[in-house]
Write a structure and sequence with these properties.
Strand order of the largest sheet of chain A: 2-1-5-4-3
Structural class of chain B: alpha+beta
Structural class of chain A: alpha+beta
Strand content of chain A: 15-25%
Number of helices of chain A: 20
Helix content of chain A: 55-70%
Oligomer: heterodimer
Number of helices of chain B: 3
Largest sheet of chain B: 8 strands, antiparallel
Helix content of chain B: 10-25%
Distance between the termini of chain B: 73 Å
Largest sheet of chain A: 5 strands, antiparallel
Order of helices and strands of chain B: HEEHEEEEHEEEEE
Distance between the termini of chain A: 88 Å
Number of strands of chain A: 17
Radius of gyration of chain B: 19 Å
Radius of gyration of chain A: 75 Å
Low-confidence stretches of chain B: 1-21
Low-confidence stretches of chain A: 40-47
Number of strands of chain B: 11
């Protein structure tokens, strides 16, 4: 049965119980009325066996009903308690309390009322009352007996006098009439009748007696008198209010029918009534006494009936209230159980307007909020699932991209343990994933030739810059390899920006590239050297050939020619010597000697060298105050600036302007030398920093190569850009190391 | 407390209803004869007319016996032995003023006798002894079966445990068996 059906059933129960209680109330009132009326009713009615039967059976039915109702409900309670049904303990206590509270006073009242009744009955059947009634009855009976005995005696005396009278003879009968009248006067009898056997012969009635007519005696009395000698009767003559007391006597002559004389006395109405009342009162008393047990049983059963009715009502009311109170609790418990199982659509349709309604309303609000929260959580979960799927897809894509990258990528966590490494990184470093993942590089490369990579990681993790890079070289599987390594610290989360979440290493194997670059550089250098050497060789060869021709021709100006040719040869050899010296200097250029350097005086000093060096070309400089002291080799940086300004002035034409700007860009210092010259074609930009590459008519082509070497030695970068509106902008970016970190 | 004293007595009285007697009431001397088309039964109730009954009658309460009479085939192992049944009700009522007992006798609900008696012995005889009472009228039947009459008396209603009603009766008594032959 579902909850709603159960509640509807209980609603019907309510109406039924209210109706039953109303009926019980009316029945009790009616019973009380009967008991009150019972005082006036004859005892015979009270002790009527039908009433006893009805009461006994009603009690039996009630007892059965009570046992059934109580037994059924108590059994159900027991089963519920065994099954630990919610509310069963409360219901048991409530029912027990109700029954106990009603049982005790009802039983006390029952026994007290029974005691009172017994006292009343004992008083009713008291000996004095019985004696009075018995004596009254005896007096009344004695009055009748006395009169009857006197009438019998009179009848006997008269019948003796009838001994010689022939009753069959008509004349005798006529004389009998006169004799009867004479006897009446003598005896004072109110009524005298003569029978021949049981056949009526004659009779006289005293007109003053009150008898209006001859009473109908019948044949039984004379027959009885004839048989027994005498007999008596009491009659209630029609039309009279008194009793007629008859006495009969007979005389039986041998061989003849008996002669019977009946003498009657009419008791006056008052005496008759009083004596009858005495007799009837005694009879009533005897009837009650005979039925005393039934009488007591009737009242006892009435008390039992009332007691049982009250018990039934109280126990039923207890059960009903228990059910009514516990049903919402059970419904709530069941609903909470369903909610705990995930069914948030539970509703409790309890028709209550009391505190239970507040509880139910709170429950409904709770389930509504839970349902709304669950919907929100499910929506959020769906969103998170989709996001996770998207993230997983992206991660897979990124993993695929990383796996297919030519560069090696190694991800480290905040503790610098390797989280992941793509295949290129493992291949470059000659490792397997298991050798690296979960370990720090210091652990992985402890005592290994690849330790510089671990050192770089440690330096990158503690460096001021977010991004660091370096070229490293170490043998891998016995083969020396060169790497470009860039480390990028991952910033911390919101609120924890200072703490890095990890580090990403990007490793590029430069071995082949450097080898190719070296080869190309040296090829170009060889070509340039050959070209530069070839340039002075041509005038030398031409001078030598002209001298040889003059000599063979015997030209008289040969001496002058020799002098000019020697001069040419010496000059070109000098150029060649200068070329060799310059190359030698480039090759022998020492490493940087770092020192804390301020750029302002350096730039001012260099700019002073170039002021008014070229007509129409101005030079200016600016150093950002934030640059401060930087840890560089001042002499090499000054030399680089001079080379860059040389090229700028060489490229500039009047009017023009050369500008030097030094600024701070985060953890780096940028030096920009801009001119407004003719600019550099993109095709030449790649070769600009190669040794001996020059776009000037005169120049060694080593200037920018030296600048690049110096910048590289400072872990810097150099790049070429177009200046606006024209010209070239050379940008040198150097790490802005502090004084304690060369 | 009187209830505790009276309750067992009431229950016992309800269960037994009759006062303790030396012998239980029973039907004696049940005989039947065929007279024309009628079955005449004679029997008497022994030890049924107890002093308690007489006391009850003389208190003026209508008191009587109900005799149940059955006419049956002589078939001991068959259930369909019953042929006819009737009830004989004898009810006495005492008039204390006239000292007379009015005794009415009904057979099958019809008053067959009403007499006024003055002696208790006569009253007892009237209520307990019956002689050649025509109780059944039968149609002539063929066959060699024997028939008998069963009688018992309903002495009144008793109550077990004081409230469970039951009928107090004597045991069924069988008459002599007779054969009804068709001339």
């Amino acid at each position: 049965m579902d909850l709603r059906a159960e509640l509807l059933r209980r609603t019907r129960d309510t109406r039924w119980v209210v109706g039953f209680l109303g009926f019980l109330f009316v029945a009790l009132i009616f019973l009380y009325y009967l008991v009150q009326r019972g005082r006036e009713l004859p005892a015979a009615l009270v002790t009527n066996r039908v009433l006893l039967f009805a009461l006994r059976n009603l009690n039996a039915v009630l007892i059965l009903v009570i046992f059934f109702v109580l037994g059924r409900n108590l059994f159900k309670l027991w089963v519920e308690r065994r099954g630990r049904v919610l509310g069963s303990r409360f219901k048991t206590k409530l029912v027990g309390t109700y029954i106990g509270l009603s049982l005790v006073p009802v039983l006390v009242l029952f026994f007290y009322a029974s005691e009172l009744l017994q006292g009343a009955i004992d008083r009713w059947f008291s000996a004095s009352l019985a004696n009075v009634l018995e004596q009254g009855n005896a007096v009344a009976q004695a009055l009748g007996s006395t009169i009857e005995d006197r009438n019998r005696r009179d009848a006997a005396r008269l019948v003796e006098q009838l001994g010689s009278v022939e009753l069959e003879d008509p004349e005798s009968r006529a004389r009998l009439r006169r004799r009867l009248e004479t006897w009446q006067l003598e005896t004072g009898a109110m009524f005298i009748a003569v029978f021949d056997g049981d056949e009526f012969v004659n009779a006289v009635v005293d007109p003053r007696s009150g008898l209006s007519d001859l009473p109908e005696i019948g044949r039984a009395l004379p027959r009885e008198a004839a048989e027994q000698g005498s007999a008596g009767r009491v009659l209630q003559p029609p039309g009279t209010r008194g009793r007629l007391i008859l006495g009969a006597a007979s005389l039986s002559p041998p061989g003849r029918r008996a002669k019977v004389v009946v003498v009657g006395t009419l008791l006056d109405p008052l005496t008759s009534t009083r004596s009858e009342q005495l007799i009837e009162a005694f009879q009533t008393y005897r009837q009650v006494e005979v039925q005393r047990g039934d009488f007591q049983a009737s009242y006892f059963l009435m008390f039992v009936l009332v007691t049982l009715l009250i018990l039934l009502a109280s126990s039923w009311m207890g059960l009903f209230l228990a059910r009514r109170l516990v049903a919402p609790l059970q419904a709530l418990g069941e609903a909470f159980r369903q909610v705990s199982l995930g069914d948030l659509d539970q509703r409790i349709d309890v028709p209550a307007d009391d505190e239970m309604a507040v509880v139910v309303d709170s429950f409904h609000r709770m389930t509504d909020e839970l349902r709304a929260n669950r919907a929100a959580i499910e929506a959020s979960h769906r969103g998170l699932t989709q996001a996770n799927l998207a993230l997983a897809a992206e991660r897979a894509q990124i993993a695929a991209i990383l796996e297919n990258l030519a560069a090696g990528v190694v991800a480290l966590d905040s503790e610098l343990r390797v989280v992941s490494a793509n295949g290129a990184a493992l291949q470059m470093l000659g490792l397997r994933g298991a050798d690296l993942v979960g370990r720090t590089l210091a652990q992985a490369f402890d005592g290994d030739a690849r330790a510089p990579l671990a050192d770089f990681v440690a330096a990158a993790a503690s460096a001021a810059e977010t991004r660091t890079s370096s070229q490293l070289g170490f043998p891998v599987a016995g083969v020396w390899r060169s790497f470009e390594v860039r480390g990028t610290r991952l910033p911390g989360g919101p609120g924890d920006e200072e703490r890095a979440r990890g580090l990403v290493l990007v490793v590029e194997d430069l071995t082949e590239l450097l080898r190719a670059q070296k080869l190309a550089t040296w090829t170009e250098a060889a070509r340039q050297v050959a070209h530069e050497i070839k340039n002075p060789l041509t005038p030398i060869r031409l001078a030598a050939e002209r001298l040889s021709a003059k000599q063979r021709a015997g030209d008289p100006d040969v001496g002058e020619l020799v002098e000019r040719s020697v001069e040419i040869i010496v000059r070109e050899v000098g150029n060649m010597q200068a070329l060799v010296d310059e190359f030698s200097r480039f090759a022998k250029m020492p490493g940087p000697a770092f020192a804390a350097t301020r750029f302002e005086p350096m730039v001012a000093d260099v700019l002073d060298l170039y002021r008014e060096i070229k007509e129409g070309v101005t030079v200016s400089g600016r150093v950002d105050p934030e640059v401060g002291e930087v840890w560089v080799d001042p002499e090499q940086i000054r030399r680089s600036l001079i080379n860059l300004l040389d090229n700028a002035f060489e490229a500039s034409s009047s009017p023009g302007r050369v500008e030097v700007v030094v600024t701070r860009a985060g953890e780096r210092v940028e030096i920009v030398v801009a001119d407004q010259g003719r600019g550099i074609p993109p095709a030449d930009r790649d070769k600009l920093f190669l040794p001996f590459f020059s776009r000037k008519r005169r120049g060694s082509g080593m200037g920018l190569a030296i600048v690049q070497r110096i910048v590289a030695d400072h872990d810097g970068k150099i790049s070429v850009e177009d200046n606006s509106p024209r010209g070239t902008r050379i940008r040198v970016s150097l790490p802005a190391r502090g004084a304690a970190s060369p | 407390m009187w209830v505790t004293r009276a309750l067992p007595a009431l229950l016992l009285a309800g269960a037994l209803a009759a006062p303790a007697a030396a012998a239980p009431p029973r039907i004696r001397e049940l005989t039947i004869v065929i007279d024309g088309g009628q079955v005449l039964a004679s029997f008497r109730l022994e030890d049924g007319f107890s002093p308690a009954i007489l006391q009850r009658i003389e208190s003026g309460l209508p008191t009587g016996f109900l005799y149940e009479i059955q006419l049956a085939r002589d078939r001991k192992r068959w259930w369909d032995d019953g042929l006819d049944s009737t009830r004989l009700e004898v009810m006495a009522m005492f008039n204390a003023v006239t000292h007379e007992y009015l005794v009415n006798t009904k057979l099958a609900g019809k008053l067959i006798d009403s007499r006024t008696l003055r002696a208790a012995s006569e009253l007892e005889r009237t209520m307990t002894s019956f002689s050649a009472l025509p109780i059944f009228t039968f149609a002539p039947v063929r066959g060699r079966e024997r028939y008998l009459v069963r009688v018992r008396v309903e002495l009144g209603t008793g109550h077990a445990l004081g409230f469970i009603p039951f009928l107090r009766t004597t045991e069924w008594v069988d008459s002599n068996k007779i054969r009804i032959t068709v001339p």
